[in-house]
């Protein structure tokens, strides 16, 4: 991946491309999971190479497989894991857990073993574990790939309601109709950058 010079300002941005095109590498560069070997990546003025810890408080990342993100035994423990590093008092931690679970329909699962949840519930928990940190931007890497249609619709409804800026990779092209901007990747390069409908049309022609 090279010769990228992009400024991402829109509220809803999608990144599409075939497997191996560079889209997952690209979004991982945006919150410091990967560091550039040349050039600079900055988010809200924070350099990913020099200010990674501060950056990850501003930019949350939801992985394709929620099992890679769930690290604690129960739902509430998993939610409290990240925010403990913010040095919040116990009352604020409790408020965030209660509010987040209530808002996203997981309050009844608070004491449940996280890895026994359904696929849709796990993905919701993964999103909540990012939301509870109150980031400005949320990056989602193929969040619906492993879900059935019903759970896919639920997750997309959650994503559409989020107030944060969203940057999302996806192979599920119909889900991108409400996105303001779509980047099409091919062999590590952005080969199209534009409105959703035109970008999807370009991508489909690229694959033929």
Description:
This protein has helices at 23-29, 52-58, 75-83, 90-103, 119-131, 149-161, 196-207; strands at 12-16, 42-43, 46-47, 59-62, 137-141, 165-169, 181-186, 189-194. By secondary structure, the protein is of the alpha/beta class. The chain is globular.
Quick tags:
208 residues, alpha/beta, six-stranded mixed β-sheet, two-stranded antiparallel ribbon, 7 helices, 8 strands, 36% helix
Q: In which order are the strands of the major sheet placed?
A: 4-5-6-1-7-8
**Shape estimate:** globular
Radius of gyration: 17 Å
Oligomer: single chain
Describe what is shown at a glance:
This protein has about 210 residues and is an alpha/beta fold. It has seven helices and eight strands.
Which SSEs are present, and which pair or pack?
Blueprint: E1 12-16, H1 23-29, E2 42-43, E3 46-47, H2 52-58, E4 59-62, H3 75-83, H4 90-103, H5 119-131, E5 137-141, H6 149-161, E6 165-169, E7 181-186, E8 189-194, H7 196-207
Parallel strand pairs: 1-6, 1-7, 4-5, 5-6
Antiparallel strand pairs: 2-3, 7-8
Helix pairs in contact: 3-5, 5-6
């Amino acid at each position: 991946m090279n010769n990228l010079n992009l400024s991402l300002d829109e509220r809803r941005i999608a990144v599409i491309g075939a497997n191996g095109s560079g889209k997952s590498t690209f979004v991982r560069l945006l919150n410091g999971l990967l560091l550039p070997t040349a050039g600079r990546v900055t988010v809200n003025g924070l350099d990913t190479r020099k200010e990674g810890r501060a950056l990850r408080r501003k930019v949350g990342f939801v992985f394709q497989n929620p099992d890679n993100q769930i690290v604690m035994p129960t739902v509430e423990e998993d939610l409290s894991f990240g925010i403990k590093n913010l040095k919040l008092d116990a009352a604020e931690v409790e408020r965030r857990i209660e509010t987040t679970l209530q808002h996203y329909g997981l309050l009844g699962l608070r004491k449940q073993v996280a890895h026994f949840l359904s696929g849709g519930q796990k993905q919701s928990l993964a999103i909540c574990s990012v939301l509870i940190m109150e980031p400005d931007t949320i990056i989602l890497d193929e969040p619906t790939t492993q879900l059935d249609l019903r759970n896919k619709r639920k997750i997309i409804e959650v994503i559409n309601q989020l107030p944060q800026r969203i940057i999302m990779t996806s192979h599920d092209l119909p889900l991108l109709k409400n996105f303001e901007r779509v980047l099409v990747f091919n062999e590590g390069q952005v080969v199209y950058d534009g409105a959703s409908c035109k970008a999807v049309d370009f991508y489909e022609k690229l694959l033929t």
